[in-house]
Design brief:
The protein is α/β, with parallel strands linked by helices. It is 42% helix and 18% strand. The longest helix has 19 residues. The model has no long low-confidence stretch (mean pLDDT 95).
């Protein structure tokens, strides 16, 4: 049974009408217009972990943030792609998770502020994220990918693009409730919809149409569920069952395992979309798994004797 806090999260989401931009097509269109007229701030909160240093630079017109543990014991890098339906900016929960990854996994975390719809599209963003991973390899060594929701789509599409371009895999990709098929054509989506207090199919289709740009909705840069997963690096995946993305996440896990990919899957009944970012006991457990999986993936291999 979910914890008391986890049971309170859907109530809070219903009261605050968190699903308003997603539940109807018109709601999504209004939200896109509002965000384009009044962009959200994206900078980190002033009060973040004091044991993590934050720096920013501009590349290709994007602010690129780097979070580094002050301990100096750093190995590798994680490129974190924030969620928000491709239309909402990075928020406190993303910054807190990124800082926790830096401190707890002992790594640098790169958090790019990518362009959002109606201006940003998958064909523009995925290649830049892939280029960021390549550049970070030169600076830090091994690089992992991570992302939540829309950012999970970006992270997995980037991992696929890197595999295709280099015939080499990312050592670990962490996916928190990733969006995988932007057509939302899985009939199970409508079965789950009444229980999801956050996302909605009709608004999601509008956002997906903007994000795909000139690409077909089934292009792996848009909907990574349609990729061939052969040769992809290990995945750590999280999902709650009160999430319309869950049916496609189950298909991802099945397809990836069938292709020989190592998948560490964590599905928790009655929990909502991106539950590892919520202030709940279940989130603490999930975050510990995230830190451990990234720490292990970025740890140097033991020297042969």
């Amino acid at each position: 049974m979910p914890s008391l806090l986890s049971r309170a999260v859907p109530v809070f989401l219903r009261i605050t009408q968190a699903n308003k931009p997603f539940i109807t097509a018109e709601g999504a269109r209004k939200h896109i217009r509002e965000r384009s007229i009044r962009p959200q701030p994206y900078g980190p909160p002033r009060l973040l972990r004091p044991d993590v240093r934050i720096e920013v630079r501009i590349e290709n017109g994007w602010p690129i943030y780097t979070l580094t543990p002050r301990s100096g014991a750093v190995r590798g890098n994680v490129v974190y792609c924030h969620g928000g339906g491709w239309v909402n900016q990075v928020v406190r929960q993303h910054w807190e998770l990124a800082a926790d990854i830096a401190a707890r996994a002992g790594t640098t975390v790169t958090l790019p502020i990518y362009p959002l719809v109606p201006y940003g599209t998958a064909d523009q963003v995925i290649p830049v994220i892939a280029g960021l991973v390549r550049a970070n390899r030169e600076q830090y060594g091994e690089v992992c990918l991570a992302g939540d929701s829309a950012g999970g789509q970006i992270a997995l599409s980037t991992a696929v693009a890197l595999r295709d371009a280099e015939a080499a895999s990312v050592p670990r990709t962490v996916l928190i409730s990733p969006a995988l098929d932007l057509s939302l054509s899985n009939p199970e989506v409508l079965v789950v919809q009444p229980d999801d207090p956050w996302l909605g199919r009709d608004g999601g289709l509008v956002l997906g149409e903007h994000w795909r740009g000139p690409l077909p909705i089934t292009d792996p840069m848009v909907s990574p569920l349609f990729a061939d997963f052969t040769g992809l690096g290990p995945l750590t995946v999280f999902s709650g069952t009160r999430d319309i993305l869950m049916p496609d996440i189950r298909i991802l896990v099945e397809k990836a395992r069938a292709a020989g990919v190592e998948v560490d899957y964590h599905e928790v009944a009655e929990l909502v979309h991106v539950y590892p970012l919520t202030p709940t006991p279940e989130a603490r457990v999930a975050r510990a798994v995230i830190f451990d999986s990234l720490r292990t993936a970025l740890s140097p291999a033991p020297s042969p004797r």
